[in-house]
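Subject: Predicted fold for Phosphatidylinositol-specific phospholipase C X domain-containing protein, 250 residues

User T.R. writes:
Posting the sequence so we have a shared reference for the thread.
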Amino acid sequence: LNSLNSGFLPLLLYSGSHDSFSYWVDEKSPVGPDQTQAVKRLARISLVKKLMKKWSVTQNLTFREQLEAGIRYFDLRVSSKPGDTDQEIYFIHGLFGIKVWDGLMEIDAFLTQHPQEIIFLDFNHFYAMDEAHHKCLVLRIQEAFGSKLCPACSVESMTLQSLWEKKCQVLIFYHCPFYKQYPFLWPGKKIPAPWANTTSVQKLILFLETTLSERDPRGAFHVSQAILTPRVKTIARGLVGGLKNTLVHR
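User M.O. replies:
I've generated the structure tokens; pasting them so everyone works from the same file.
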């Protein structure tokens, strides 16, 4: 509360979600370009996609429901879809999710109803996207949020009060050199998100404590990924259980 009352955004702790969009993935779609050729070959067997879904879905709440639950940081991975000719971009995690445009509109509707809420959209993985795809995605972002977009600036210069006065509600982080062409795209280095890549709870906690103590206290935001990550053998042993039962509860 003291941090909130001071008005300095860098002092706030925001809740975030991992692979934020993957509350639904399309079993009928092709396997995403984020997967290996071996997985793509296996996915020709219909049962394989059903198993993939168990390990690809990381949320059970829509964007709106996550926002209502207090989530303000969204981890976003996006891709074009093979065979599409309209430059449409989709969320992706093994399998394709909803269109990015639909997700952005859901978020914008919430922000319009709650003009003092500030959110972070972290576009950190791009697959099968050329310059035309990036331009299409950035145009979608502009169309969705318009004047709500916050121009990139010094982190320390930002306060909640200044954002409210400017009616800025959305910070877009874009982990691609394309960010340099648009003032409202923040570079990915401004929001590092170190990843433990472990199935061990003890190793995860140690990693989070270490990265927090070593982070630069100025110049950037910071994401603590409090998640366990399955390995191939984890999935092989937990085919029936899936991500939620095998790792998340633990």
